[in-house]
Amino acid sequence: MDKVAALMMLLLFLSVFQAQAAPIRPVGPVTIEGTIQEVRWYPEKFVKGTPGMSGSAGKDRTFPARYVIRLTDLVLREPIQGNAAKFESTGGATIMLNHKVDDGFLKKGMRIIVFHYREQGDEGGTWTSFDRLEVVNARRGEL
After folding, report:
1. CB 92 within 8 A of CB 37
2. CATH code for the structural domain at 21-137
3. Could you tell me the residue ranges of all domains in the chain?
4. DSSP letter string over 52-109?
5. Disulfide check for 55: which of 6, 60, 122, 129 has CB 3.0–4.6 Å away?
6. Distance from C-alpha of 65 to C-alpha of 127, rounded to nearest angstrom
7. What is the pLDDT of residues 33-65, one digit of tens each?
8. Considering the entire predicted model, what is its pTM?
9. Cβ distance 86 to 74 under 8 Å?
10. How far apart are alpha carbons 71 and 90 in whole angstroms?
11. What is the spatial distance between Cα 141 and Cα 120, in angstroms, rounded to a whole number?
């Protein structure tokens, strides 16, 4: 087989097995109670799509401003719908809560309840939502 034929076969192979969107297993809705072990806030971020990629990775997208928090001492208030492994394997979970400003609303040590948390996405990003958040108690010294 000459080089041109080999190249044609390679291109045919690659076109048949183009990258497909790889969705993550959805989580929720689930109501989660936990203690904030770690908290970080990230501003809104625009990401340009990657040409040739499928799913959201191939499209321009904007990730909302959000807190990324690590919860420990979890209590699941209702049966989990979707991917339960996120909460069952470690006794804790990292979740993302959309929040427009870095106002210090969430702090390490707070005990919170996140009602109807949902998570979905693919290789291009993760999108989350929740119905409401309740602070059960603030850190010691802030009660």
Report:
1. yes
2. 2.40.50
3. 21-137
4. T--GGGGS-EEEPPEEEEEEEEEEE-SPPPB-THHHHTTS-EEEEEE-SS----S-TT
5. 122
6. 11
7. 999 999 999 999 999 988 888 888 888 889 999
8. 0.74
9. no
10. 11
11. 37
